[in-house]
């Protein structure tokens, strides 16, 4: 492609509304343009990179035994009503009506559509397992679209779905898809981790997120310093072994704490450690009050609370709900003399506290020397807190550290969350009707592109990995008005194309400085410049990532390009 014919409008200034590096550089380098908040056009350079990401995904999906298909973005409301998500998905679901008043949704995902398709077409165990995928535009009305392609309202996604006769078959496919995802993100050159995760609105159990480690990530990852353990902080189990102090239990004593409200203020007022305080927090779980107790230096994990209760919905109680249930403000809550209508559960660490400090359900007062079983009741102990840095790794190897991550992929064991309400059933080998077991596997394709850009750049622009670069080589005639340089540029352009390389040739009537600046901004791994030594048949070969420059005779150029691309691809 000659650059004079390429639609790639570059920008010298950083767009005011671009907060992160990937967004800034993809705009400045002419890869994307914003149409509306969270909605982007992919310009030719962006489309080429996107195509390469999709090609890698297709190859690995097919290697994993998945078949590609295409499904409609416009989905019948009836299907979502069958699954129950029409009412529970929330405002992110874009809903609309046709001219006849029939309701539809713009698909944020395709569990309902694929399940109804397989329900109607597959009737026998002999057709299972089945694994299908598509790459398609999805729609979610994000409340706060930001970070460019990392959180948009319209985005490109690869979604795959597998159907099985039993859980054992699902387990095999699930592990195969995890390996396929590792191969995909490795080929894209990403620094990623597969982490244990919560299933969120998709549903199901047993799932992993694939996180690219990044300071701008919206998710916090807990990982081991000495093993491959990694989990979303919401899902990381705490396996800390606690020991009781052996201190003799004292009588409960009510003490005045004046205006001390926070854990830190109470600890300072009473001259104790925050770990000697029990923090009490009221939740509403499926409409019922639940008092959750954790140690003062720990934080309640509402996902773990939801899971231990087996609840569909858990929310922090409002000030009004707290007052009507506990008779006090949220900052004064404690577990002594709590109504029998309130379930009390506690983190494991609380079980080992002796003579703790707790709220007295009265402003400006706390209790000292509180002990469970003696002064207050607990119906259930369990892991209810967020893991912390320095905690032992749950797998027993190393300690926990935190890192931020960008989610680029997610794999789920759905079980029968969709197949049961949608009646996706089959006849087993005994002729009995059985409900299919499902898996679901998603990759944010456009988000992956942005994550690669976020990881691969410097102060001058993008630095694409060889596998994803929009072109293989960026060829520049430094002075297109110089006949020798221009002629050599044309000659090398044809030679590189004939050798099978996708070459971007900058033949524009621009100053050399402008061409070099645009080349650095676009970020193609190898740059070849026909400059002042063109008459001698000498060109410069520059590696974008390192800045290393080598002078090469044109007779050796094709071989040099091949050699350097192989080195950079390692």
Automatic annotation (TrEMBL):
PROSITE patterns: AA_TRNA_LIGASE_II
Enzyme class: ligase
Keyword Cytoplasm: yes
Keyword ATP-binding: yes
Domain Aminoacyl-transfer RNA synthetases class-II family profile residues, every copy: 38-465
Catalyses which reaction(s): tRNA(Pro) + L-proline + ATP = L-prolyl-tRNA(Pro) + AMP + diphosphate
Keywords in alphabetical order: Aminoacyl-tRNA synthetase, ATP-binding, Cytoplasm, Ligase, Nucleotide-binding, Protein biosynthesis
SUPFAM superfamilies, per database record: Class II aaRS ABD-related, Class II aaRS and biotin synthetases, YbaK/ProRS associated domain
Cross-referenced Pfam families: HGTP_anticodon, tRNA-synt_2b, tRNA_edit
Free-text function comment from the UniProt entry: Catalyzes the attachment of proline to tRNA(Pro) in a two-step reaction: proline is first activated by ATP to form Pro-AMP and then transferred to the acceptor end of tRNA(Pro). As ProRS can inadvertently accommodate and process non-cognate amino acids such as alanine and cysteine, to avoid such errors it has two additional distinct editing activities against alanine. One activity is designated as 'pretransfer' editing and involves the tRNA(Pro)-independent hydrolysis of activated Ala-AMP.
Subunit note: Homodimer.
NCBIfam families, A to Z: PRK09194.1 (NF006625), proS_fam_II (TIGR00409)
Record remark: domains: Consists of three domains: the N-terminal catalytic domain, the editing domain and the C-terminal anticodon-binding domain.
Name of this chain's protein: Proline--tRNA ligase
Organism: Fictibacillus terranigra
Gene name as annotated: proS
């Amino acid at each position: 492609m000659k650059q004079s014919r390429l639609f790639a409008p570059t920008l010298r200034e950083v767009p005011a509304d671009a907060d992160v590096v990937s967004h800034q550089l993809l705009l400045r380098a002419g890869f994307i343009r914003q149409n509306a908040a969270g909605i982007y056009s992919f310009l030719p350079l962006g489309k080429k990179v996107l195509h390469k990401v999709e090609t890698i995904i297709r190859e690995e999906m097919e290697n994993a035994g998945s078949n590609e298909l295409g499904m409609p973005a416009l989905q019948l409301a009836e299907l979502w009503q069958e699954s129950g998500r029409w009412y529970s998905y929330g405002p992110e679901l874009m809903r609309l009506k046709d001219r006849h008043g029939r309701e539809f949704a713009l698909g944020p995902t395709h569990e309902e559509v694929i399940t109804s398709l397989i329900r109607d077409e597959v009737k026998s165990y002999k057709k299972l397992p089945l694994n299908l995928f598509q790459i398609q535009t999805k729609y979610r009305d994000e409340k706060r679209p930001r970070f460019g392609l990392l959180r948009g309202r319209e985005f490109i996604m690869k979604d795959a779905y597998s159907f099985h006769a039993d859980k054992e078959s699902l387990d095999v496919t699930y592990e195969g898809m995890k390996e396929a995802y590792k191969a995909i993100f490795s080929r894209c050159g990403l620094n990623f981790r597969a982490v244990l995760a919560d299933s969120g609105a998709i549903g199901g159990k047993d799932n992993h997120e694939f996180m690219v480690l990044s300071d701008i990530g919206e998710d916090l990852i807990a990982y081991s310093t000495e093993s491959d353990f990694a989990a979303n902080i919401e899902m990381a189990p705490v396996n800390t072994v606690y020991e009781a102090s052996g201190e003799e239990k004292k009588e409960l004593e009510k003490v005045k704490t004046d205006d001390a409200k926070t854990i830190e203020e109470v600890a300072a007022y009473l001259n104790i450690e925050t770990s000697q305080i029990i923090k009490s927090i009221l939740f509403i779980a499926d409409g019922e009050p639940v008092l959750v107790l954790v140690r003062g230096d720990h934080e309640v994990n509402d996902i773990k609370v939801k899971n231990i209760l087996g609840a569909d919905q858990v929310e922090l109680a409002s000030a009004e709900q707290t007052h009507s249930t506990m008779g006090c403000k949220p900052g004064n809550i404690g577990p002594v003399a709590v109504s029998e209508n309130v379930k009390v559960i506690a983190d494991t660490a609380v079980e080992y506290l002796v003579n703790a400090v707790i709220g007295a359900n009265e402003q400006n007062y706390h209790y000292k020397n509180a002990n469970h079983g003696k002064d207050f009741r607990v119906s259930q102990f369990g892991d209810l807190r967020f893991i912390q840095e320095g905690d032992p790794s749950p797998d027993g190897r190393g300690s926990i550290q935190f890192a931020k991550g960008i989610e680029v992929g997610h794999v789920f064991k759905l079980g029968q969350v969709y197949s049961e309400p949608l009646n996706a059933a089959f006849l087993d080998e005994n002729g009995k009707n059985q409900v299919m077991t499902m898996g679901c596997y998603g990759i944010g394709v456009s988000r992956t592109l942005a994550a690669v850009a976020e990881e691969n750049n410097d102060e001058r622009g993008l630095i694409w990995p060889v596998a994803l670069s929009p072109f293989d080589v960026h060829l520049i005639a430094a002075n297109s008005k110089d006949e020798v340089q221009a002629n050599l540029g044309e000659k090398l352009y044809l030679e590189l194309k004939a050798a099978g390389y996708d070459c971007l040739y900058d033949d524009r009537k621009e100053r050399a400085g402008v061409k070099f600046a645009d080349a650095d901004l676009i970020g193609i791994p190898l740059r070849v410049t026909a400059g002042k030594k063109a008459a001698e048949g000498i060109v410069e070969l520059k590696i974008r990532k390192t800045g290393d420059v080598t002078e090469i005779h044109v007779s050796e150029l094709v071989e040099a390009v091949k050699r350097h691309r192989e080195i950079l691809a390692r």
